[in-house]
Amino acid sequence: MYTKDGEQYYVVDAHIALWDARPENQRNVHGKQFIDCFYDYHRNLSPESEVWDYEEYLYQGGERLMRDVFADGIVDHAIFQPARLAEFYHRGFGQTEEAFALAQAHPDKLTYNHYWDPRDGENGLDALRAAAERMHLQGVKLYTADWHGESRGWKLTDPMAYRYLELCRELGIRNIHIHKGPTIRPLDRDAFDVADVDHVATDFTDLTFVVEHCGLPRLEDFCWIATQEPNVVAGLAVAIPFIHTRPRYFAQIMGELVYWLGEDRILFSSDYALWTPKWLVERFVDFQIPEDLTEYAPLTTEVKKKVLGLNAARLYGLDVPEHLRLPEADETQTGPREPAAADLAAV
Amino acid sequence: MTAVLPDLAHEVRRALGTVVDPELDEPVTDLGFVRSVAVDGGAVEVHLRLPTSFCAPNFAWLMVSDAHDAVAAVPGVQRVVVELDDHHDSDLINAGLAAGLGYRGTFGSEAEDSLDELRATFTRKAHTAAMERALTALLRADPSADVREVTLGDLPDDAAAALRRRRSAVGLPVDDGAPVLVRDDGTRPGPDDAAMVLRRARSVRISVDGNAHFCRGLLTTRYPGSEADQVPRPDDRPVLPLEVLP
Predict the structure, then answer these.
(1) Distance from CA of A16 to the nearest CA of B (A)
(2) How confident is the model at residue B242, as a pLDDT?
(3) Are residues B150 and B71 in the same domain?
(4) How far is Cα B110 from Cα A185, in angstroms, rounded to an integer?
């Protein structure tokens, strides 16, 4: 729970990881390139006081994770969103057993989501069934740019992916987190494109599709799809640290998301260990859209409470104290949520 | 004869200035993506660098092959080597380019047809973003302006020039009487959808500008000192400068 100026915020970090990118786990140069890319994100977007050494960035372990994520009791609950990256790391990037054991040890604080990959075929379906039973999965994280043998990516609309989504439906795995990455076959078109999310969201209206990084670097394509699909949600991982170095850009991202999706479909995520949640929560609570950006309404305390935790709590059935709950906004299911606030477009 | 050599390096850099990152709508020379240019007689070797190892390989290919074509077309250049450094596909791309394999020959089964559609998509986005910048600047000065009626002739010179460049690229008319606000297909929106066309254009502009700032920043994190090779984002984009902490 975070308290500021007499307001209490129930906080859910909807995207954390327990990774191992140490040299002994790197399978090839891409394992090093991948974590180096993360580290550059970390160094570029963090306040100086929050920058870690490269060595400590490679691996944190469960004990440190609990300290970092739940520092000062700000975060109430966090959700693991692991990436496999088996072609880059011997034992994978996300440490399944370590993270799952940690979630079992702290069920009030942690939820473990797993992953699947349609290129694992029939065996993967069996494995998903077994994992769902053992781990009581409520959600999965999908990384469409993951490499797999000769293949360097897949689409949600691949026929085998539909089999997996049907199985998710059957197993009660309702929250499908999607991360778009840069390499996918064919290379002819934009690999960050989120058009396949549109298709599956239409075909699986009983599942919720959380697009991580709110579609960045294709915010515009994401907003256009999400505004038409009520079961598409924005995850703020990687977007929210812009609050420090580029606050006006972050203001515009938030303004666009609230306009196109509404306040009930945006989730706070630190993307730990890319960044730690404490400073992000503190900054977000203090944040306001600059006054000269008159095309956006100010972010109210209610909007911030929903983004920081209440929206994710709803998706994961978390037990939010009665006095901290808020009703959903009475907003349209599709289309812009507050067109009246967009005065510059009122022609 | 010796006086010719520095000129050739200059001409090569000028040629590289015509190579644009399609996503960010800026020359690779302004972004700091040109790591080195070496000229030895008529032989030229250029090294490019990108903000991360995992920048999309299709965009990387477009920039590297465009750079190769641009440099090869400079009078006096006899041999060209263009290499992309430190990318997860560096070996593949550099070998494909050196062997003249083209996009499909380089990426094999991962390539289907061509990158023309990808390029067209981002040429269109560059225009959409420029259109929004021009109209939003106008609206900030005069909130009562009717954006549907605004023509190229109504815009300040610098905004009009920036927009004309991008209109030419997508085949839109560039005369003073041409309406500024158009849909993706080039048609003029009606009173009912004009607001939505502008709103969608705004999200495109935020995306392009935001990505440009982030990519520029990441390059300087990855390659300390590379900020000296960057030219500030041009003044044709004065609307809502993104505040960046040092």
Answers:
(1) 21
(2) 55
(3) no
(4) 5
Please check whether residues B46 and B91 belong to one and the same domain. Answer: yes
> Which residues, at least 6 apart from B47, have a Cβ–Cβ distance to it below 8 Å?
B34, B35, B36, B82, B83, B84, B85
User: Considering the domain boundaries, does residue B164 fall inside one?
Assistant: yes
How large is the average pLDDT for residues A121-137? 98
Mean pLDDT of A180-186: 80
- Helix crossing, B194-222 with A247-260: angle to 10°? 140
Q: To 10 degrees, what angle do helices B194-222 and A219-226 make?
A: 140
pLDDT in tens, B117-139: 999 999 999 999 999 999 998 98
Q: How many residues does chain A have?
A: 347
Domain annotation covers residue B245: no
Closest CA to B241 of B206, B217, B216: B206
A:B CB pairs within 8 Å: 145
Structural domains of chain A, with CATH? 11-345 (3.20.20.140)
CB contact under 8 A, A252 and B221: no
User: Domain range holding B207?
Assistant: 116-229
Instruction: Answer yes or no: is pLDDT of A181 > 60.
Output: yes
| pLDDT single digits (tens) A73-87 | 899 999 999 999 999
Min Cα separation A344/chain B (Å): 7
Overall pTM > 0.80: yes
Say whether both B205 and B161 belong to one domain.
yes
Contact assignment for A37 to B52 by CB distance below 8 Å: yes
List, for residues A12-21, the tens digit of each pLDDT value: 999 999 999 9
**Residue B94 backbone phi and psi in degrees, to 5:** -65, -40
Question: Do residue B167 and residue B84 come from a single domain?
Answer: no
Query: For residue B57, which residues of chain A lie inside 8 Å, CB to CB?
Result: 182-183, 187
| Chain B residue numbers touching A49 (CB-CB < 8 A) | none
| Per-residue pLDDT at A46 exceeds 50 | yes
Kindly list the residues from chain A whose CB atom is less than 8 angstroms away from the CB atom of residue B113: 186, 188
The number of domains in chain B is 2
CATH number for B18: 3.30.300.130
pLDDT of residue A341: 55
